[in-house]
Amino acid sequence: MNSTDLFSTLAHRFGQLYSKLMPIPCLLCGSSSGNDCLCQACSEQLPLLGHACPRCASPLQQTMLCGHCLNKPPEQDASFSLFRYRSPIDRLIVDLKYHDTLVLSQFFATQMAEQLKKRPLPQLLIPIPLHPRRLRERGYNQSLELAKQLSKQLNIPVRHDILMRIKDTPPQASLPFAERKNNMKKAFQINNTNIPNHIALIDDVLTTGHTVNFAAKVLHEMGVKTIEVWTIARTIKNDHSP
Ligand SMILES: [Zn+2]
Ligand SMILES: [Zn+2]
Predict the structure, then answer these.
(1) Does a structural domain hold residue 226?
(2) I need a labelling partner for 53 at 20 to 30 A (CA). Which of 62, 66, 142, 206 fits?
(3) Which ligand is nearest to the CA of 74?
(4) How confident is the model at residue 210 (pLDDT cuts 50, 70, 90)?
């Protein structure tokens, strides 16, 4: 186990122990939430994605392929997102990513697993990696933390040494949409040839999809047959839903 893994495990264990001993206030409203990080009322009001295209997770009236996927399908074979990326999910994901609120990875994984266990499951979970330099700055990779929790809930192994980030790209969110595709070119490399046929890539948010698209492309090239993309939330253009 390297020092980053050790730090993340210790921080996580400490968080688990702390939350068992001390009732934690809800991260959104501050009221007592028992042993969970959100109270029941706040949990129930989170913006679920609902019916969506099975290939790209764009919201639709019914669960069917969207026009975009019929014309020009993305690299991944299936996508699952639980929430719409908007308030208060955006705030919670920022907390998970940058403010060490790792207890949220357990919360989100539990909610995602409830839905995911109804479908045929992949043989392996692969988190979208951070570049080593960014991992050192942040101390942990939120996608790996989420993948570890999903792994526990769904009983699927997780590997973070297969897909490597070899290009230190600026964060996608910091770039205009038009530049995001170029930013991700040649960002990934595969470190292992013994990969099962059906895998799921784990990330926090699915936005333009360029990041997962390039990761899925290198995995398909290695012979992986079915690649799913699982994220906590999906960004939706012009989201006017109530
Ligand atoms: Zn609350
Ligand atoms: Zn679609």
Answers:
(1) yes
(2) 142
(3) 2
(4) confident
